[in-house]
Amino acid sequence: MPNRASVLVAMTLFMAPLGFAKDKKPPLPLSVVHAKTVAVLIDPQAGVSIDDPRANQIAQKDVEVALLNWGRYETLLDTQTADLIIVVHKGHGHPVDETISDSRQNNRPGAINPTDNSVALGAQRGRTPGSILDPSNPSSNNPDSAHPQAEIGDSDDSFLIYQGGVPNPLANPPIWRYVAKDALHSHNVPAVDQFRKAVADTEKLEAKKP
Q: Which of 13, 176, 5, 22 shows the shortest CA–CA distance to 84?
């Protein structure tokens, strides 16, 4: 009769492959790999932090610059024609934070254009062309509806990818997400690095298929 130690070793060997399979992330949809254009939005439900009012706008710009440096996707301001829509939300570092709702966060003062060593800004006034508002949040249509609010559960940065070219894209579940502390950290933007790895891993899997 096998002793207890032998049984434990056998169970460990049996469970190890199961754990690996469970931790392995699924590949991205091919629509992400084949996409050509992307638009970056601030989460329409994100409030303006009293301590750092421009946090979401800075995160949005950092993501756009990181995407331009990558060079795989063309960044657009028109969300209705973009193949993919990335929604960013800067975390507050603690579970509950007092913010002010402001739908004007996605009003763009300028368009980003890559240059040799910097990013140039092109003038643009008013709301982003083809702006997508959150259908579940009617106040996003009304810039006069700003009011204090408490954001709960937004301690980490979030980077969500939605499929573009469909009705009410933000009403659908995201097709990829990365939520982590400092995921939208300025300049290096770890969320974009993780997205690049996910795209590369998916391409490798596709290349192995017969």
A: 176
CA of residue 172 relative to chain centroid, distance: 14
**CA 173, CA 193: separation in Å to the nearest integer?**
22
Helical (H) or strand (E) element with 117: none
Assign 197 to helix, strand or coil.
helix
Instruction: Give CA–CA dist 196/43, Å, rounded.
Output: 21
Q: Six-digit token pair at 208?
A: 């192995």
Length of the chain: 210
| 103 closest CA partner among 132, 70, 139, 131 | 139
pLDDT tens-place string over residues 161-201: 999 999 999 999 999 999 999 999 998 999 999 999 999 99
Cβ partners under 8 Å of residue 31, min gap 6: 83, 163, 175
The token pair at 175 is 């097709």
Closest CA to 82 of 93, 73, 69, 94: 73
Q: d(Cα 109, Cα 155) in Å, to the nearest integer?
A: 28
CB 85 within 8 A of CB 35: no
**What's the pLDDT tens digit per position in 70-89?**
999 999 988 899 999 999 99
